[in-house]
Amino acid sequence: RIFELDHDQISSIYRPYHSSISNMTRDREEKEHFSRGHSSGKASPRSGTRDKEENERFSRGHSSGSGKSSGNGGSGGKDKMAIRHRHSDGSGNDTSHRHHSDDRHRIRRTTRKGLRIFVGTANLSQAIPDEESLAAFLPNKGKAAYVLNSDVKSSSVVDGVSKKDFNQVDRHGKVEVLVLGFQECLESTVANGLSTAFGGLLSKKGSADVPAGNTSTKELDAMINAHVGDDYTLMMERLQADMLVYIYVRSDLASSASITETHVQTSRSKGCSIASTLIVGGTKLSFICMQLKDKEQFVPRKNSTISAGKKATLDQKNATVEEFLLAGKDPSLSSHHIFVFGDLNYRVSPPSNTRGVTNTFEEEQFIARNMLTKKDWSSISESDELVQAMKNNDALSAFTTPFCKFHPTYKMQRASGIKYDYSSMPSYADRILVRSNQEGSRKVEAIVYEPIHQFSTSLHKPMRGLFFLPDRKIHFDPNNEPKAMIITFTHLKGKKLRPKEDILHSDINPYLQFCCDARCVKMSKSSKDRTETTYTTDRPTWPTQTIRYKVDLSSSKRHGDEIKDTLLHIKCMNEGIRGATVLGTAVIDLANVICKSVSKEEWQQREVETYFYRGGRQTGKLYYNIKVRWEENE
């Protein structure tokens, strides 16, 4: 009798079975894909027409030169993402629209709640960008779909981000935080006059402000505000020397956001830095825009001295990064999440040849062209000065940066596309790095990291990144809400403490200082906030000392809102003749400890390992035992 039914009757019978089978198949495939993880840039095989088309769109990416997003309502993207069943009503007409809306609703992914943070950096090379270049760089009106869409390049998706993770970041609406940093944003005539006018002041005090609204930045300011739109509140705009930084927050969050502090550093020989801390709903986000000076033009081209010249230049960059971080009270330790971005000017420096002889400049150019032709990103990364500095703990080892799966961003010709000026070694000069002092599910996730090759007015290609900060709430049992928790630290010991360069390892007299600014976290009356001093050792131990804290949860904010962003700082101090100095600071996320122990009356962890940091570098290791005991409400 099925042959006697009309089309609508067949569809009513078919739809429930197809929906159930499609849902089970999709869930099984996504589970298998997620368990396999992200594999070296290759998409995992998918079964089914819909998954194959969707996977091809995910890996194919932006078509060259197009600045449009197909994930913003275009028919092409949605028609391929949805399952379409074409039927005929007998007269030859297509009736697929009857099921299209239902299928599109059925394949909608669940999204995680959190902050979407857009960070962009561009060295303008003393030229105001044209409209086409700026439109390719900035998300139009802050729309997330401009960066998070189904046509994103596979080279732009950060390694380790699976398709499921990518789809769980909401691509609808507008990003919550938008941060832009511009270097060399003043036109050449203004920049030269600025260098002359402020030369004496910069050499004496190290910093100077340029009046906001300079004629050379008015046009840029108007263009940026037009692209950002009226749905954002400008929290900070700072012009320092020839560096310009903007921090925008979506207007619906502006009432709970504020800029707490801004530190600037400027030096004619070292570079410039602007560090600002933004608080959004109790979470501290620090943004540090830098431009490090590079004296590559003064490095001799002779084989005998080129290595020494490069090493001296690299050592100065590493020291400048540490100086800039420490000058701003080291926000990499005081904030929850920290972003360092800008023209860091770290170069690609190929290793010596097989005979152990340093490459000449001409040999390096040949090596660079060969690696770029082959798109050998791994070899380029191994020769990247920043990657090596982080690996060797010379600079910024406290941070992470996504792997670069694209062409170096400098030195380019002022044209759209990839056209190098080989007078300088092609390098990843423009970078974005991130650090999270919060652990577990509260870490910042890098989702998209990409250069903008359509930018045609600069010697640099801008970099932009889309980062996601998931929400985290502490849920207590409503039938058995705790009154307080006791946190105890025992068996404290340090290893490989790294003093300043002018202090010998045998001259270290370390002790630990505990501090926490949260009002609900108090030191126990029977405990001290510091350990005893151990003398002349870089491997101190405190086996008998106990540090105990009590966390009060009996306030009106007992459900975790008050402590979800609480950090505990453990400073390793060196007791010297002229007073105590900080060797490094370890940061413990108390909210993460609470999340691990909330369902247990007593919880403990042994031999926990963490690091001391100072100026963005590791300065030693800390080991401890931790025990949590919960006090139930009476």
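Second entry:
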Amino acid sequence: FSGRHKMTASPTPSTSPNRSTDPSTTNPNKRKSPEPTESTSSNPHPMPPRKKARKQKKQSKSNKSRNIKNSKSQDVENLDSKLFREYYTAIAHIILAKTVQTDANGKVTVVETDDTQKEFETVYETFKMDLPLTFRINPVHEKRVQDLRRQLEQYGDDIDKAQIKKGDFFRDMDQKRIGHLETQLKEKLQKPESDRSENDVAAIENYQNGLKLIHSREYDDSFLPRPKPIEWFPQKLGYYMPISKRYLSKCQDLSNLKTFLLAQTESGNISRQEMVSMLPTQFFNYEPHHKILDMCAAPGSKTAQLLEGLHQAGREQNKPVTGFVVANDNNVKRCHLLVKQLQRLGPLFANMIITSHDATKFPSLKHNGEQIKFDSILCDVMCSGDGTLRKSADLWRLWNPRLGSSLHEMQISVAMRANALLAPKGRIVYSTCSINPVEDEAVVAEILRRSKGTLRLVDCAGKLKNFKYAPGVTQWNMCLRDGTIASREDIDGIQIRESMFPPTEEEAKWMNLHYGMRVLPHLQDSGGFFVAVLERVSEEDKMDTNGDEKKEQTKEASADETTTTKPEPNNGQGIVRQARGKTTGELEYSDIDTEFHNALVDFYDLNQDIFSYGTLFNRKDTKQLFREDVPKRIFYVPQPIRNILNFNEEAGRKWKIINVGLRIFEHAKRIVNTERKLSVEQYRVCQEGVDILYGNSTKRHLTIPYTIFAEVLKRREILITELEEWVQKNASGQEKEEAFITTIKEFAFGPCVAVDEKEFSPVAAHRSPYSLQVYCKKEMQSALLYNLTSAMEKK
């Protein structure tokens, strides 16, 4: 493939009403002076001009992003990229030559492709289709897994009975679009031909083409299938449905399924995740004591899988989880998004440390002169993302070969830093959402060169049953930005590097690049993806590691010079760390008072092996304090993580920790009397930590019958007298319900954990002198009510 092509937009104009070609509506830089109105002229406090300009710019970007997102399904027929087609057509005979298939018994078969060009056309057309809806069930809670499977089967039965036609939804949407386009066309045609500008003529042609396209469209009248398990996903906990996310959100016939998925996602029982994104974490060998690092973690779907794998290993081996996951991202804002996403996992979040570092310079942490090594490291690195074309419509016009090569060196640096942090016999999983060999096999080949025999590629064929992929390649083209094929004579050491080219024949023999896995969209109706598994086979190379260590120390020293003054050491009196990101003041964690810790242990009868002194701490900053000695929130961390935090303090806070600890108690009300002593009753249980508290305590448990529990959840707070009246009216003669009224009257005042008869999902509660109150988010409330209703129907 050769020839030069300029970067141009999609050749076919858009017909979407959200992407109008009228320059007055699409040009974000064209400002209109606002016409004076009565409301604006009479405003005594007008918005400052600079602030108003910033607001308009932000709104313009938001509208542009929304238009691109909403137009994906509407303009999929117009998506095209000449550069993309020609680049991959030239190497189609290499990347599509073979397909590896694993059957249900784990038998691996390699199938030769008869016509690679025809196969590429299938790949190309699949990239233009919407991504299917996929999600997975959290495997840690066995009771919830069984119940969620049963509920999904019930939704599947409802969909089969309704006999929903796929095309009906798009037919209705197109009718609305036709009305919009006809209105716009009518307005443009009202202008005399002599007064029409070039933009008006182009808009008229665009609207006419759009109407022709819609009228010629054929609709799929087959019935919508039920959610089905993803065949290759372990334990059949991943689910697939051949509809887009937009279809789910707009189709009224699927509103119940949408509500169910949203509620269960918010409660942490389900994670909505793209199919190929579920893949990299499947190739680690989890043990309850493992230390795991996710070097580029945000937004957190793969990090959640790492946490689930760690806890699943502990449950299967009947051992406590003493390991942890470090989730790192260079952007502080994305780190806070990471916190929000992972807090849904409840007790699993206790084994999480979130840091903010450049992944190429992630600092090593030492204790007693020994570096802390990780057993598993996930390098899901930044990439051009051409495997995400099915959900990134704008990438069609932006793609060029230079996108991949510009990130090549950074990808190598991230993986090599992971190599320096890897423990003996540990694994690195390198992955990208790209199918460009320069970002995939070329990076892996350079990693193997630089590791000097300490790493090897692992053959994971047969690891996942019923899985299809294309093996890694050893030959490819290195192209310039305009599509021209580059040769080794073009190497300049900056934009074109030696490592971007294919390995030599001798190198290819020992590298085993065919062990890499190329997931192509047409094989299993997914996005494009690449995964390679590397394993440490010998002691780390001293020259290579020491070199990395020296570079790291130099970079850290220069970074320390630009940071704020380091706070004084706390002499072992508690965990202290400095805030990073937007805030400039110190953010400290310190141990709670010994007497108060013992009071909590006695009040709930906590397991002292789990809640030993030092595992509970409070955050001391002015926004979260009522009084200097009265913390607003109390957090829990397992002892191994507490040790890591202590090591970090000893090392001078090498790790920039953004978040750590599971919120388990929170002050229930503001203290009015400053002389009042600190007491356990002042702190209510937080929903995030209720599972770990319930599983490791014997006191303050309140078991509630199904019917009453559902009523309490609906009201969120109910007076004891009202509850007694409700039982007499709705559950008269029921022994469990009447016995509960006696129990609640005798139950001591204060915070507690409420749970249903089957102990499906504990809820944070509080027994006041006059009422019973539960604390949970509305989404969690919806999920619990649904689960209780289903349990009562089953009963």
